[in-house]
Amino acid sequence: MSKRTQIYLPEELYYRLKEKSQHTGKPMAEFIRESLEKYLEEDKKNELYPNDSIWQITGKEKSGDGDLSTTHNRYLYPPEKGKMRTTVKIDEDLLKEAREVAGGASIKEVINLSLRNFVRREKMHRLAEKLGTYDLDLDQDTLEKLRDNNG
Q1: pLDDT digits over 73-83, tens only?
Q2: How far is CA 31 from CA 23, 51, 151, in A?
Q3: Which domain holds residue 126?
Q4: What is the total count of domains within the chain?
Q5: 55 located within any domain
Q6: CA distance linking residue 27 with residue 63, whole number of Å
Q7: Of 37, 72, 126, 145, which is most buried with the most CB atoms under 10 A?
Q8: What is the rounded CA–CA span in Å between residue 36 and residue 122?
Q9: Residue 117 counted as domain residue
Q10: Are the beta carbons of 53 and 42 closer than 8 angstroms?
Protein backbone atom coordinates (compact mmCIF):
# COMPACT_ATOMS: atom_id res chain seq x y z
CA MET A 1 0.00 0.00 0.00
CA SER A 2 1.39 3.38 -0.96
CA LYS A 3 1.33 6.48 1.22
CA ARG A 4 1.09 9.98 -0.17
CA THR A 5 3.71 12.49 0.94
CA GLN A 6 4.99 15.87 -0.12
CA ILE A 7 8.64 16.81 -0.56
CA TYR A 8 10.46 20.00 -1.44
CA LEU A 9 13.22 19.77 -4.02
CA PRO A 10 15.88 22.34 -4.84
CA GLU A 11 14.78 24.13 -8.00
CA GLU A 12 17.67 22.87 -10.14
CA LEU A 13 17.02 19.26 -9.08
CA TYR A 14 13.32 19.66 -9.79
CA TYR A 15 13.97 20.84 -13.36
CA ARG A 16 16.50 18.08 -14.01
CA LEU A 17 13.99 15.51 -12.77
CA LYS A 18 11.19 17.05 -14.83
CA GLU A 19 13.34 17.01 -17.97
CA LYS A 20 14.28 13.35 -17.39
CA SER A 21 10.61 12.51 -16.86
CA GLN A 22 9.54 14.23 -20.08
CA HIS A 23 12.40 12.62 -22.02
CA THR A 24 11.59 9.08 -20.85
CA GLY A 25 7.85 9.34 -20.31
CA LYS A 26 8.34 7.96 -16.80
CA PRO A 27 6.54 9.84 -13.99
CA MET A 28 8.70 11.97 -11.70
CA ALA A 29 7.29 10.13 -8.69
CA GLU A 30 8.59 6.83 -10.06
CA PHE A 31 12.13 8.23 -10.37
CA ILE A 32 11.92 9.50 -6.79
CA ARG A 33 10.66 6.13 -5.48
CA GLU A 34 13.41 4.22 -7.35
CA SER A 35 16.10 6.61 -6.12
CA LEU A 36 14.93 6.35 -2.52
CA GLU A 37 14.84 2.56 -2.75
CA LYS A 38 18.40 2.43 -4.13
CA TYR A 39 19.63 4.87 -1.49
CA LEU A 40 18.03 2.99 1.39
CA GLU A 41 19.35 -0.36 0.15
CA GLU A 42 22.87 1.05 -0.17
CA ASP A 43 22.61 2.71 3.24
CA LYS A 44 21.45 -0.58 4.75
CA LYS A 45 24.63 -2.30 3.51
CA ASN A 46 26.77 0.17 5.45
CA GLU A 47 24.77 0.07 8.68
CA LEU A 48 26.31 -1.48 11.79
CA TYR A 49 23.98 -3.85 13.60
CA PRO A 50 24.07 -4.91 17.27
CA ASN A 51 25.34 -8.38 16.28
CA ASP A 52 28.11 -6.99 14.04
CA SER A 53 31.46 -8.60 14.85
CA ILE A 54 33.02 -5.18 15.52
CA TRP A 55 31.17 -4.96 18.86
CA GLN A 56 32.58 -8.30 20.02
CA ILE A 57 36.18 -7.13 19.86
CA THR A 58 36.10 -3.37 20.35
CA GLY A 59 38.29 -2.32 23.23
CA LYS A 60 38.88 -5.89 24.47
CA GLU A 61 42.60 -6.30 23.86
CA LYS A 62 45.75 -4.53 22.76
CA SER A 63 46.95 -6.15 19.57
CA GLY A 64 50.40 -4.69 19.19
CA ASP A 65 49.57 -4.13 15.51
CA GLY A 66 50.12 -0.48 14.75
CA ASP A 67 48.01 -0.51 11.59
CA LEU A 68 44.63 -1.64 12.94
CA SER A 69 43.10 1.80 12.77
CA THR A 70 43.59 1.91 9.01
CA THR A 71 43.33 -1.79 8.08
CA HIS A 72 40.63 -3.02 10.47
CA ASN A 73 38.26 -3.97 7.64
CA ARG A 74 40.77 -6.55 6.47
CA TYR A 75 40.58 -8.25 9.86
CA LEU A 76 36.88 -7.84 10.53
CA TYR A 77 35.40 -8.47 7.11
CA PRO A 78 37.70 -10.70 5.08
CA PRO A 79 37.08 -10.29 1.35
CA GLU A 80 35.29 -12.87 -0.70
CA LYS A 81 37.68 -15.07 -2.64
CA GLY A 82 39.08 -13.07 -5.53
CA LYS A 83 37.64 -9.79 -4.24
CA MET A 84 38.89 -7.04 -1.97
CA ARG A 85 37.45 -4.11 -0.08
CA THR A 86 39.26 -0.79 -0.15
CA THR A 87 38.69 2.88 0.44
CA VAL A 88 39.85 5.40 -2.15
CA LYS A 89 39.28 9.07 -2.83
CA ILE A 90 37.79 9.52 -6.31
CA ASP A 91 37.07 12.67 -8.29
CA GLU A 92 33.29 13.01 -7.81
CA ASP A 93 32.67 14.77 -11.12
CA LEU A 94 34.66 12.18 -13.05
CA LEU A 95 32.84 9.34 -11.29
CA LYS A 96 29.47 10.96 -12.01
CA GLU A 97 30.37 11.34 -15.68
CA ALA A 98 31.60 7.73 -15.85
CA ARG A 99 28.34 6.48 -14.32
CA GLU A 100 26.32 8.51 -16.84
CA VAL A 101 28.39 7.19 -19.76
CA ALA A 102 27.94 3.65 -18.41
CA GLY A 103 24.16 4.07 -18.40
CA GLY A 104 23.75 4.73 -14.68
CA ALA A 105 25.90 1.78 -13.60
CA SER A 106 26.76 1.45 -9.92
CA ILE A 107 30.05 2.78 -8.59
CA LYS A 108 31.31 -0.80 -8.22
CA GLU A 109 30.36 -1.62 -11.82
CA VAL A 110 32.05 1.54 -13.14
CA ILE A 111 35.26 0.82 -11.24
CA ASN A 112 35.36 -2.82 -12.38
CA LEU A 113 34.64 -1.81 -15.98
CA SER A 114 37.35 0.86 -15.83
CA LEU A 115 39.89 -1.59 -14.43
CA ARG A 116 39.06 -4.20 -17.10
CA ASN A 117 39.42 -1.59 -19.86
CA PHE A 118 42.69 -0.31 -18.39
CA VAL A 119 44.17 -3.83 -18.18
CA ARG A 120 43.02 -4.66 -21.73
CA ARG A 121 44.50 -1.44 -23.12
CA GLU A 122 47.82 -1.98 -21.32
CA LYS A 123 48.06 -5.58 -22.54
CA MET A 124 47.41 -4.45 -26.12
CA HIS A 125 50.04 -1.71 -25.76
CA ARG A 126 52.62 -4.18 -24.40
CA LEU A 127 51.84 -6.67 -27.18
CA ALA A 128 52.29 -3.94 -29.77
CA GLU A 129 55.66 -3.05 -28.19
CA LYS A 130 56.78 -6.70 -28.31
CA LEU A 131 55.73 -7.11 -31.92
CA GLY A 132 57.47 -3.90 -32.91
CA THR A 133 57.11 -2.27 -36.29
CA TYR A 134 57.92 -3.63 -39.72
CA ASP A 135 59.05 -1.80 -42.81
CA LEU A 136 56.82 -3.21 -45.53
CA ASP A 137 58.35 -0.97 -48.19
CA LEU A 138 55.03 -0.53 -50.02
CA ASP A 139 54.23 2.38 -52.27
CA GLN A 140 50.70 3.72 -52.74
CA ASP A 141 50.07 1.81 -56.00
CA THR A 142 51.11 -1.54 -54.52
CA LEU A 143 49.00 -0.94 -51.42
CA GLU A 144 45.93 -0.12 -53.53
CA LYS A 145 46.45 -3.28 -55.62
CA LEU A 146 46.66 -5.37 -52.46
CA ARG A 147 43.47 -3.78 -51.16
CA ASP A 148 41.67 -4.41 -54.46
CA ASN A 149 42.72 -8.07 -54.49
CA ASN A 150 41.62 -8.66 -50.91
CA GLY A 151 38.38 -6.66 -51.08
Answers
A1: 666 666 677 77
A2: 12, 34, 51
A3: 89-132
A4: 2
A5: no
A6: 55
A7: 72
A8: 39
A9: yes
A10: no
